[in-house]
Amino acid sequence: MQGGEAEQSIIEALEKIFAAAGSFDMVVIIRGGGSQADLNCFNSYWLCYHITQFPLPILTGIGHERDETIADLVAHTSLKTPTAVAEFIITAVGEFDGYLDPLNSQLVEIASSQIEEWKDEANNLSRNIISLLKQRLSKEDQKIQTLALLNRNSLKGYLYKNQQRLITAQDRVKYVVQHYIQNNKVQLAITQKNVALQLKIFLKEEKNKLEKFEGTNHLLDPARVLKRGYTLTYSRGMLIKSALQLKPGDTIESKWFDGTALSAVEEIKKQTND
Question: 138 and 32, same structural domain?
Fold first, then answer.
């Protein structure tokens, strides 16, 4: 991240990510500090041009508290240190997770409610058709009985004729009812499958996003950083990010990945960037 080849190597890395942009959620440019001269590559026109044109959000944590590069100014989000970038991403993942859980529950609830509503509509239609059929059959039965009283001699012939008409009407109504109910069942089954498929796709996509965030967080885990030889310094319960936070006589606690040590500050030497 420094030296004469730094600018070109960063641009090449951005171009590789651009070629597979669908596999990434963001780009993080970080470094662990250094002299002011080492920041020159982050003021490069071509590097900053690539950052402004990049389709994914770019976060910077170049490692200087007081110095600000042009790359910081054109980035989506600028943070001072790699640790601050890790904290920002972890916080964003937590907020997204909190947003996803109620959304998932709401989607399932809406889908279930819609399915139940369609079931109720199909059942109501079935009951209404059966009720109409019973009323129709009752009226036909009353007509037959009335005609039988008026003309006993022709009753048998008349009943037979109307009985055949009634049987035909019953068969026709039965066919219409069965056909209507069957169509509604098929439509309901198709709708249920579509809702279940969309829900499954949505949950799979959100799971993939969470797995990507978890993988990123694992790589940025402070414990892994400490194992590479870095330390965290605390004084009075606060994380020390600058020597200006200390004064002679302060007690500091240095934390490695496998333990801590207490030290006393004898002298503060300020670093000047010439």
Answer: no
**Which range of residues forms the domain containing residue 249?**
226-264
Please provide the size of the chain in residues. Answer: 274
Instruction: Tell me which of 273 and 79 has the higher pLDDT.
Output: 79
Domains: count for the chain:
3
User: How many angstroms separate the CA atoms of 166 and 168, rounded?
Assistant: 5
Shared domain check, 108 and 125 = yes
Beta bridge partners of 29: 60
Query: How large is the angle between the packed helices 45-53 and 6-19, nearest 10 degrees?
Result: 20
Residue 216 has pLDDT above 90, yes or no: no
The pTM score is 0.39
- Quick check: 153 pLDDT over 70? no
- pLDDT at position 59: 93
The reply to whether 272 falls in a domain is no
